Amino acid sequence: MKLLHTSDWHIGRALYGRKRYEEFEAFLDWLAALIESANIDVLLVAGDVFDNSTPSNRAQELYYRFLCRVAAAPHRHVVITAGNHDSPSFLNAPRELLKFLNISVVGYASDRPAEEVIVIAGADHEARLIVCAIPYLRDRDIRTAEAGESVEDKERKIIEGIRAHYRRVYEAAEAKRATLNKSVPIVAMGHLFTAGGQTVDGDGVRELYIGSLAQVGRDVFPAGIDYLALGHLHIPQRVGGSDSIRYSGAPVPIGFGESGQEKSVVLVKFSGDAPRVANISVPRFQEMKTLQGDWQTIARGIDELKSTGNRAWLEIIYEGDEIAGDLRGRLDEAVAGTGLEILRVRNSRVLERAMSGMTTDETLDDLDVTGVFNRCLEAHNIPEDQRPALLIAYQEIVAALNEEDHMAE
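Predicted structure:
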């Protein structure tokens, strides 16, 4: 069988206020064409289908239109699991209907492991593959909170909860395979942060759990899994150097920090004892450029882009010695009448910041929620010995807010 592993579509995400629906639509059209031309048997989507738990009507339209197109082949299967950005109840709502299109959706972790085990049949109606469709495991799915727990206790329970959940689902898959009386590969899915995983600044990858991000090692996954399709991290990468444990990465750059990456999906072929795995590059549907330096360097970069008719989205980072209080006006004039679009301007020498006495060139756009909280601790002169406990409490609150399913009721 031929599998295609992808994740982290983040349909509906905007970039500094700029809507990106045309970009997402172009990617989904490309992906559907690839699935058809490569005769893919199974598509795995390992979480973060949408960028938030209340996707817009247009985001939903793109999603369902894609599923209808892919499901046109009678023996093709799609397996979708929820990520930490998704609403589990929203993804699950149409799953009984989607089953008739050979589309399986798992939004919530289940107390009954067999509910996360999906048997995939071939055109001959014989079982060809077993999928452990494990979604993002929320804190409450894997850990029972107790009064007086230390941070180390909480982290240990999170890791052990993840390990136990994968073991139970894998054992249910093995039990199912035993009833088939044939050797069928077992593929697992997951949406989590593995130890040593690579990220980039501004990629929007949220902290999943309190403490140290609860980054899990390879040892939490059962050794018998033939291929592990992971989501959450946006850089395509292998885990621990293994070809059979991979992040497909986000196929569309989430921010300017990802604009230089080669994006991909993963092709997995089962035709013998071990799967053959290869990345397939995803085209760039919208060019994004960062121009950085003094005014002369930035102006020269804009002129070069204009000379080729480029229609890139631009991030401008001004680092000149000149205050350049009229920087935005000069930039707008430089790109007027072109296809270039400036989405972000960061002026590290802006006059009002200098006059306010601030010693840092940070803005809210440059900080994540933890960074903002740290700045608040500094601004209120909170003693150093009190900060770790306050930060842990804050992270726990943020994790709980992120895991709320606003679409459940």
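Summary: The two ends are 39 Å apart (CA to CA).
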